[in-house]
Amino acid sequence: MDLLKKIRILADAAKYDVSCSSSGSDRENKNSGIGNASFYGICHSWSEDGRCISLLKILFTNICIYNCSYCVNRCSNDVERALFTPEELADITINFYRRNYIEGLFLSSAVYKSPDYTMELLIKTVKKLREEYNFNGYIHLKAIPGADVNLIRLAGLYADRMSVNIELPSEKSLKLLAPQKTKESIIKPMSFIHNQLMEKSESKKLMRRTDKFVPAGQTTQLIIGATPESDRTILKLSENLYKYYDLKRVYYSAYIPVFNDNNILGMTSPPLLREHRLYQADWLLRYYNFKADELLTEEEPNFDVSLDPKINWAMKNLNLFPVEVNTADYNMLLRVPGIGLRTANRIVKARKAAYLNYDSLKKLGVVLKRAKYFITCNGKYYGECEIETDKIKNKLLPKRNVIEGQLSIFDIDNTLNNLPIIV
Ligand code: SF4
User: Fold this and answer.
1) Closest ligand 1 atom, residue 75 Cα
2) What pTM, to 2 d.p., does this model score?
C-alpha cells in the first residue's frame, strides 16, 4: 500500500480522539501560492505557554485485536486497514516538519498483536525521531492500556505528553462495551506516569540535571452518551482524576453513533451540547474552586443543558444572591454568572481605589446581561425581575431554539424547521 493511502486511512481513523482538534481542511497549493492545507490529519493543539501548535495526528495502525463496541476500528468492523513501520512514520513526521506543515506529532494506535508489541512500535518511532533525526518538536503519545510499565517509562522519556484514554466512565460500562480492557489496565499506566512525575519533581530539587519524563503531563478522554452514566458520575470521576493523578486535562468526546449495538444507548446524533456543558463544568472545577457535588446532586444528577453550569448552580443557590460587588469576597465574586477570573481580579483591584458603580462594572468587563440578576452595585439591584428562579431563568434562556448537535445539510426540512431565530 502506498504511503499516501496509509496516511489517509490512519489520519482519518485518528479523528475520533479529541485530545486535540482536527483542522479538517482540504485546500491544495495552486499556482505557486504559499502554504498547503491538503494534508490529512494536521490539527491544532495548545502548548503549556498558550501557543497554538499544529500537530500531525495519526494512528500507527488501525488493525486491532480488540472489539470495543463504540469504536470504528474494532476488529469486527469491516474498514480498510493500514499499518506503518516506525521508519515510515518517523520519515513522514520529519518531512512534514521540515516543510513547516507541523510543529509536532500526536501518535496513537489500535492494539496490534498485543499491548506490549504496539507500545514497542510506538517507542521505536519516537526514539528514531528523537535520537536519529534529533527532532525536538512536541510529541503527544498514547499509552496503550495493558502495556508493561517499563515500556511506559521508556516512552515517557521521549514524549512531551502522554495520555491513557479511560473512554468509559464506569467499570460496568467498560466490561459491557470494551470487555478486553480492564480498569486496572487503564489505571495502572496512569498511576505509573503520575508516580514517575512526582519522583522526577522530587529529584529535580536534589539534582541539577534529571532525565525529562513527560514534561507536559498526562491527559485522558471520556466518551459521553454511549452509556447511561450521569453528568454527576462523569464530573466526579474527572474531579478524582485531577486530584489523585494530577491530570492536565480530561477531554470529553460526544459519542458519534456509527453502529447499531444493543449495548450502546440509542441516539441519532452526538450529544454535543451535553459535551459542551461538561467542558464548562470541568473549567469550574479547575479554575473556579467548585466541587462536583456542588454543581450536581444525587437528586439532580444531570445538567439542564439549556443553561450553563454556573448559572445552573446560581439558580439553585439564590439564597446567596444578590452579592454586593463592592464588598463580596473574591471567591463569591467568582461564583457570580457573568464574572470570570480576570474580571473578578479587576473588581478586587479597582474597588480599592473607588466605589464601583454599574457603569464601571461594564468597563471592567463584567457580562452584565447575566451578572445583573445576581449582584447589587452600591446597594442597587439592576435585574429586571424579582430574584426568583423561574423569572431569572426566563430572562436568561436564549431567545431561540437550542439545537443539540450540528445542523445537517442533507436533512433539509428538519434543518430549516430548527434554524435558530436571530433576535
Ligand atoms: S482498543 Fe482502541 S482501537 Fe481497538 S477497538 Fe478498542 S478503542 Fe478501538
Assistant:
1) 5
2) 0.82
